[in-house]
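Note to self: keep these together.
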Amino acid sequence: MIYICFSQENTQRQSYQNNAAMELINSVTGTDEEGRSRQRILIYAARRYATALERNPEDYDALYNWALVLQV
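Structure:
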């Protein structure tokens, strides 16, 4: 029972962090077509990894890749 509560809390926290990161990514605007194209690619990758983490918070590959996308 305690594990289930912890897991739900962890999932909610992860979802909140994913939303905050996506808001940050969406707030960045490119000044030229190349910049906007790169932004679209980064948004796609960030959403993909965020979704993978919501489904499985123990997916460390997705967590690592998500962090890399956020650093760009």
